[in-house]
Amino acid sequence: MVNYFPEEVLEHVFSFLTSHRDRNAVSLVCKSWYNVERFSRGKVFIGNCYAISPERLISRFPRVRSLTLKGKPHFADFNLVLHDWGGYVYPWIEAMAKGCTNLEELRLKRMLVSDASLELIAKSFPNFKSLVLVSCEGFTTDGLAAIASNCRFLRELDLQENEVEDPRGQWLSCFPDSCTSLASLNFACLKGEVNLAALERLVARCRNLKSLRLNHAVPPDVLQKILARAPQLVDLGAGSFVHDPESETYNKLKNVMQKCTSIRSLSGFLDVNARCLPAIYPICINLSSLNLSYAPGIYSKELVKLIRKCKKLQCLWILDTIGDKGLRVVASACKELQELRVFKSDPNDVGNAAVTEEGLVAISAGCPNLNSLLYFCRQMTNTALITVAKNCPNFIRFRLCTLDPITPDAVTMQPLDNGFGAIVQSCKGLKRLSVSGLLTDQVFLYIGMYAEQLEMLSIAFAGNSDKGMVYVLNGCKKLKKLEIRDSPFGNMALLADTGKYETMRSLWMSSCKVTFGACKSLAEKMPRLNVEIINEGDEMEGGSDDRQNVEKMYLYRTLVGPRKDAPDSVWTL
Amino acid sequence: MAMSSEESCSYPEESELELGLGLSLGGGGANSKTKPSPAAVEATMAGHWGQYARILTAKDFRSVVSPKECSSSSSSSSSMTKTNNNPSCGVKRTAEPSSPPGRSGASQVVGWPPLRNYRIQSLVNHAKSPKTEEITPAIDKCKNKTTIVDKTNCGSNLNRNVAKEKGLLKTSLFVKVNMDRIPIGRKVDLSAHSCYETLSQTLDDMFKLSAVVGARRSNAEEQVLKTRRSRLLNGSSEFVLTYEDKEGDWMLVGDVPWEMFLISVKRLRIMRTAEANGFGKCTLAYALSCL
């Protein structure tokens, strides 16, 4: 009966499906649904840019308007992947420019983006509205200038944590006077100067501006003028917040802040004088999101005073300078907290700033809605983790990083297996897990048994034998991404269930015990996987020893075979 | 090792809790519902670690301490964890058996703790004064100390860019600072500043003065909360800041543009105005009021 619906009706029904998973499911029902779905699909998410080619994407979804692409493997964030490993966006833009010019939105993560790519975007897509770049590199502000100059309907320019060269610093002035459509502008990661007058004028004419995140070249007096023009802001990233609390500027800033009653999200404070923080007290009560993780100049006392006022906070990113004591205040004040990230403030740990298991336990007791955690701590105990698991059964993301990657339970000196076991057993919706500390195969047995919804698992310096990895591969049916470093998993584990890898997006193994020979045989057996070996330095000429351990291996499923843009040091077997 | 044995034994409750999970999965003493017998713990640990070393037990420590057996086996397993590099894991760090927990050389591991480069760089720029070869972080650090109160006076964007283009920004420029009647001198990094105001604020704090030449109500970025504020006493400051230039002459700080000052300064001196012979009080007061 379902087949008798005319296509227009199907299309209308499908228009209510926004999640790409739902749409993927729908397209598998039958041929006609597949066709209706593919012509009406506007947003496509590609988790690994090498899993598919741009040409095939366009031929299946000719009307795509929004494209999300991810490039390098996650561990590239931590310097484990060569800079030029890959993830070039240019071929995608080139293909879209030829075949699909109604592209409106491009969201990229961990990709190499050249100025030429940005210029091509600016030229090729007349309706281009939104550019979001996260952890990308390879471009300069010249590329941004091209986007600013040419994209007449630009609504969103969001640059998060990119490495950007800034040779000229005039990109902001390139927004023409006719540009009034900006709703979101984030240039906090840019290191250079900006034309402040141009910025002020831009803000004044973009009446729909809701989100603005400044870099540290924007001083408080300009911030004050901007806020006076844009009291409708919902999301603010302050740049520099260093000024004299006795000054006129500060007074003006305080007054204008009071009028910014729409601000729900606050971040930045890249340079900050803690004595100026009282200026933002009036808006604290409205905040649902606060990111002070780039503001090391604020010490625990001031942090605490500030956070105490943020009673409606749902998302908090902070540095470990807050200390366990500070976390107890968070626990008592921020009852609606859902996401907490506590970052290391001192990567070399020469100071004393740190949080321990006590802070985490306090948070779990005070914030039962907590569902997402990233916690860099000096130490942890099984007891604490068990308590946390009991208090907060709703975790979707749980990522723990101990300073010493193989530190045991700080009290009993036992492995932390049972603690993480409690987490996976209690949190039935857990999708993402990063484990650290002293861990044996036992923890992976627990993970395999209980973590039924787990999609991403990060392992470092853990486990004793192949059994650990096998527990995970066998047990976690929904696993999509597995990344492992410095753990004793070898060929037996790698080859135990080769079909599994086609159900996953990717597998990363570095400094493990897999040999070249095993990788070769895996590649032979599974033609729809790309098995890449990354060799930096060590010369492995052809005819290398099959018994030699592979330093870094990255494998992923793909429909398009080995890629052609790999550098010399990356071999696809 | 004797110490830790006491610690672990004083928490019998916790080990009870650990095991009360109901994870009766067999396959090792650590999973049983009862407190593990030392032998069971030993056996489990031995199964995992046994190929690396013999497990030390209370018997080995008989002469040193009289611990309960459970504690010694857990302490010995912990000590073994620390001493044993566990080569099969490919751990890229040196074993540090005597290091305190949580600090055993974690910073030597590549990519640990797992923080994005971007984040590490921005924290490092804050934590240190700019000693890097790159100009950009040096500029960032100068910006940290920029006051916004009076742009014309202070290191404005233009000054900094000009300086950068002329290659004048040095990576670090420590000069001696001496003060009258104080035998021990200090050193200050001039490249951490971009204008006279922040420099004078820093010197003010360093020498605990209530006023230094040129110090308007300025605020530098502070790493530590300072309760004392710099106040300008409108020209009649008790102290004056001078510097020796490359030609050996002593000059009043503040006359020349900042960048020029940076090139010619060799060292600084804080004089008490009563002793600033050769300047004359009136000249001095006038000079101060011009800054």
From TrEMBL, chain A:
InterPro entries: COI1_F-box, F-box_dom, Leu-rich_rpt, Leu-rich_rpt_Cys-con_subtyp, LRR_dom_sf, Transp_inhibit. One of its GO terms (biological process) is pollen maturation. SUPFAM superfamilies: RNI-like (SSF52047). One of its GO terms (cellular component) is nucleus. One of its GO terms (molecular function) is auxin binding. This is AUXIN SIGNALING F-BOX 2-like. The lineage of its organism: Eukaryota, Viridiplantae, Streptophyta, Embryophyta, Tracheophyta. It comes from Olea europaea subsp. europaea. Pathway: Protein modification; protein ubiquitination. Residues 5-46 form the F-box domain. Keywords: Auxin signaling pathway, Developmental protein, Nucleus, Ubl conjugation pathway. The keyword Nucleus applies. It is found in: Nucleus.
Automatic annotation (TrEMBL), chain B:
PANTHER family: AUXIN-RESPONSIVE PROTEIN IAA11, AUXIN-RESPONSIVE PROTEIN IAA17. It is found in: Nucleus. InterPro entries: AUX/IAA_dom, AUX_IAA, PB1-like. Residues 1-22 have a biased composition (Low complexity). GO terms for cellular component: nucleus. It comes from Olea europaea subsp. europaea. Belongs to the Aux/IAA family. This is Auxin-responsive protein. GO terms for biological process: auxin-activated signaling pathway; regulation of DNA-templated transcription. The keyword Methyltransferase does not apply. Residues 172-275 form the PB1 domain. Residues 1-42, 67-110 are annotated as: Disordered.
